Amino acid sequence: MWLYDFLLSLDFLGLALSIFIFLLIADFLRNRNPPNYPPGPLALPFVGNFFSVEHEHPYKYFTKLADIYGHVFSIRLCNNKLVFVSGYKMIKEAIVTQAENFADRPYSSIFDRIYSGTTDGLFFSNGEIWKAQRRFALSALRNFGLGKSIIEQSICEEIRYLQEEIENERGGAFSPAGLFNNAVSNIICQLVMGKRFNYSDHKFKILLEYLSEVLWLQGSMWGQLYEAFPGLMKHLPGPHNKMFSHFRTLQEFLAQEVERHKRDLDHNNPRDYIDAFLIEMENHKKTDLGFNETNLALCSMDLFLAGTETTSTTLQWALVYLIKHPEIQEKVQAEIDGVMGPNRQPTMADRPNLPYTDAVIHEIQRIGNIVPLNGLRMTTKDMTLGGYFIPKVLLEFSSQGKLLGLFPENLDNSMSVLQGTSVMPILTSVLFDKAEWETPDTFNPGHFLNADGKFVKRDAFLPFSAGKRVCLGESLAKMELFLFLVGLLQKFAFSIPEGVELSTEGITGATRVPHPFKVYAKARITGFLGLYDSGSFTFICSFKMWTCCLFLEINIRALLLFILTLLLVKYFLNKKEPPNFPPGPPTLPLLGNVFNIDLKQPHIYLSKLADVYGNVFCMRLGRDKTVFVCGWKMVKEAIVTQADSFVDRPDNPVVNRIYSGNSAGLFFSNGKVWRKQRRFAMATLRTLALAKSSMEESICEESRHLQEVMEKEKGEPFDPVPLLDKAVANIIAQIVFGRRFDYSDHSFQSMLRHLTDLAYLEGSIWALLYNAFPALMKHLPGPHNAIFSSSKSLEASIRSEISRHKLDLDPGNPRDYIDAFLTEEKLSGDRQVGFDEDNLVLCCLDLFLAGSETSSKTLQWGLIYLIKNPQIQDKVQAEIDGVIGATRRPTMADRPNLPYTDAVIHEIQRMGNIVPLNGPRRATRDTSLGGYFIPKGTCVMPNLTSVLFDRSEWETPNTFNPGHFLDADGHFRRRDAFLPFSAGRRACLGEGLARMEIFLFLVSLLQKFCFSTLDGLGLSTEGVIGATRTPHPFKVYARTR
């Protein structure tokens, strides 16, 4: 009652003053510090030290406060109290020694609006959710190549794209920021989304711009104001609103990617982080650990954001500092030239040999200071730091705070949220700690070099933070920085327009980025021209006149002798090999080693030569030298580690007669044509269900047709080859032609016969002779002519299919590969990269050949080895019965539960050795392999037989032993030296489809039938060698189980 009377007696001014005094007292009481709390500057009521902070570069202000108040001090930003930790030793104490006490993230008004409930992504989640999500992310990313050679290959491939984009600037000034963002982002995109984006993709460029702006706004004054007054700022206009609109756009983009992945998810073959997360969701339906679709989008966004901005910004700072210090840029390039030369792409194996370059990269990270303030931490219990008391609970959020817009509006009126003390490590103070660095404010690569010029690690080098919250992509970032920067400096010398001065001050947000700048990138490598002078020209003319006079004076016999002598001289001149060229057996003039080869089993002969001459040796096949590469380690070095050096196909007279111009199909095209066609084929086949459940259903349906045809044999012996050929060919026919064929279809049977003939003849002595002497063999009769007649018949069949497709083509709804190609041809019309009808025919031929011949041969070898080892067939069938039973169809989801069956299938592929010699490669540059010099243009042939039977990789290489793929507990295990599909950039693009076909066809056949052969008849495992290795004709019994 007295309060009511008191309020009535007050006028408006008095009432306002009373409220102000009340709020002032409430503010004082609420913000009182506990005893022995870290000191700090005097804070104003309500706003604290907010307006004292230098908002342009806040980390500088906080560093100055450390000089005044010590390495542990506190400030108040409006209603948020923060304890700052400065200096290497104190920060190490906080985030490493006491890591458990500072593992959590504090409440954030910005991220509370972006995230919700348990969906806090990777960066802002806490407790068990954070542990589960971080553990899963690390495991998934490692499975998809993080820290392995596979991601190194992706980075090297992206370097090539980046170099091409920079070359397109033709030495003009350009801004590198956008290109670096694109390049770096494409690496994390491949891990998270399983794909990369073209640099011209407008939508992707917009997303990257949004990403950069979000990070700047988050660390700007606008982000700080929103954190201080969320209830108020939410309703005010201003740049802070862009944070949320941009975040929504990014989330929508990632949500679309999630939906795309759900449509073609293969539980047994996850392609990327999103696939792995979707599969893991099914294992956590009843848990509350953040495995849901909303959190998947947020985790993907965190990875996308962290995996793009910091590395891209570091590369920008690298250009700034290297341009400002041209003598350092030149010294780095000299070291690169000495170790790698001008052409070979860098690898991580080069880093120990580039100590000065490594030191420069580390110094760029240190002085670039990309993340000046580490992510906020929160105390999980009462503790001390630097002698000061840091309480577990400092703030209590309640509904009363909403009156002033101090706290978020989404707090329930009855809600009370306990907030631990927020702790902010100042990473700048570590990277510029005067007690740790000799010249902290100077760009000095010597910080990371010892007296002998060798690279040394420094404890105070913490650009990625440390402790439990250390950046989970640290190894990826290190790899990217090294490979990108070395790849760029190997190719270009960077400079700026005259009179322009680059600033090292930077723009500070959540990250510290350089002010916009432009650079010149001048190519460092020039070509060489051989020029004739007038004297040389006169000599050449005189020589020609003399030769003509000589021919007029001699008779025919002498002329023939003269021609033979010229040919022999030319042969010996061509035979002359460069220094340190791979050794090999002696060769006959003109013929080389053509007739030395064991024509029945050439792969075995070549493997024996490796025992004599080593794993890299040379043979002359007619006019051409071929370098053969043997053994797992050396083959991997050639086609994986040095993939770019051996990515092209050599000139091939057989292929030249079949193909022409840009029309080189998928297998024999090179350069931009090959890259474009392979990318298009991969994208189209994925879209058309290469990894979808619909393709799995098609294979199961085809298995049913195959079983019905075998049942009609009624237990009598039959030849399984035609049936297996038709069944497998029908799968690729559905992808390429959009339909399957009846097994009795005469035109289909004719196509398969021509395919078999083509596959055999292309690897036979006849093709070898044609390639050695094309001008002669072209006019001679012989089986080699069937190569061209078979290919023409197949081309005619494919052209007929294309004509059928053109009649009812719907560009908006492509049914198959032909539809998609015809649509792309209309849209792009780019014949220079093979989008024309002639190349469509050849691409279809390549897909049809590769997609039917190899899988069918594997199934044939499967029957042979299972019949020869009946105890293994019985064991496989027992496992199938136990997991699938007698009636249910197999699915790819069964594969993890059939480890023995999976091991048997892999051993069939190894012993079957379907492609004994990999497709020939051509050296695209001078390089070395196994210590030998391989000049540009050399034909190189990897011997896959030597990998699959490598004695140093397989316990019993010449024995059919499924144990090669089983561990001690009977679980399936992968083997590095298992390369039936080759590897590297020319790896089989239908590998995923082939694995699915072989598993589903073989399991369904063994589920229904017991296979055996005629009594007393032994099946041969020798095989017939062509381009593929085919079993000798055989018959089997298929008795219903």
Nearest-angstrom radius of gyration? 35 Å
Strand % is 5-15%
The helix-and-strand class reads: alpha+beta
How would you state the average pLDDT, rounded?
A: 84
Number of strands: 22
- Sequence of strands across the biggest β-sheet: 1-2-8-3
Oligomer: single chain
What keyword list fits this structure?
1041 residues, alpha+beta, four-stranded mixed β-sheet, 37 helices, 50% helix, 7% strand, globular
Descriptive notes:
With 1041 residues, the protein is of the alpha+beta class. It is 50% helix and 7% strand. It contains 37 helices and 22 strands. The strands form 9 sheets. It has a 4-stranded mixed sheet. Strands 13-14-18-15 form a 4-stranded mixed sheet. Strands 4-5 form a two-stranded antiparallel ribbon. α8 (176-192) runs antiparallel to α15, α15 crosses α17 (355-368) and α26 (693-711) runs antiparallel to α27 (720-736). The chain is globular and about 110 Å long. The model is unreliable at 396-417 and 526-554 (pLDDT under 50).
Topology (elements, then pairings):
Layout: H1 2-9, H2 12-30, H3 58-69, E1 72-77, E2 80-85, H4 88-97, H5 109-114, H6 127-143, H7 149-167, H8 176-192, H9 202-219, H10 221-228, H11 230-233, H12 240-263, H13 273-283, H14 293-306, H15 309-324, H16 326-340, H17 355-368, E3 377-378, E4 383-385, E5 388-390, E6 395-397, E7 417-419, E8 422-425, H18 427-431, H19 474-491, E9 492-495, E10 507-508, E11 512-513, E12 520-523, H20 534-553, H21 556-575, H22 602-613, E13 616-621, E14 624-629, H23 632-641, H24 653-658, H25 671-687, H26 693-711, H27 720-736, H28 746-762, H29 765-772, H30 774-777, H31 785-807, H32 817-828, H33 837-868, H34 870-883, H35 899-912, E15 921-922, E16 927-929, E17 932-934, E18 939-942, H36 944-948, H37 991-1008, E19 1009-1012, E20 1024-1025, E21 1029-1030, E22 1037-1040
Parallel strand pairs: 2-8, 14-18
Antiparallel strand pairs: 1-2, 3-8, 4-5, 6-7, 9-12, 10-11, 13-14, 15-18, 16-17, 19-22, 20-21
Helix pairs in contact: 7-8, 7-19, 8-9, 8-15, 9-12, 12-14, 15-17, 15-19, 26-27, 26-37, 27-33, 28-31, 31-33, 33-35, 33-37
